[in-house]
Amino acid sequence: MSTIKKMTLEEIKNIPPMTEAERNALKNSPITYDEESPKLSKEELSQFRNSVMMFFSI
Fold first, then answer.
1. CA triple 23-12-55, angle to 5 deg
2. Are 39 and 33 spatial neighbours (Cβ–Cβ below 8 Å)?
């Protein structure tokens, strides 16, 4: 289940930095794959990277 919140640039600028505890919690959390975010193969990741680079002309 995803939650989307629209924010203005000012709201984003006012988000406080993450604490050390929050960063560690993210680092130590397992990755959960599902229908909305499946695990991708190296080939699929390569195709995605190539399309992003072409789109942004990187």
1. 90
2. yes
pTM of the shown model: 0.45
DSSP helix/strand/coil, 53: helix
Does the CA dihedral 32-38-44-50 come out positive or negative?
Answer: negative
Tens of pLDDT, residue by residue over 10-41, are: 999 999 999 999 999 999 999 999 998 899 99
The tokens of 25 are what? 């919690």
From CA 21, how far away is CA 19, in angstroms rounded?
5
The answer to whether the CB of 20 falls within 8 A of the CB of 12 is no
User: How far, CA to CA in Å, does 49 sit from each of 20, 28, 34, 36, 41?
Assistant: 30, 26, 21, 19, 12
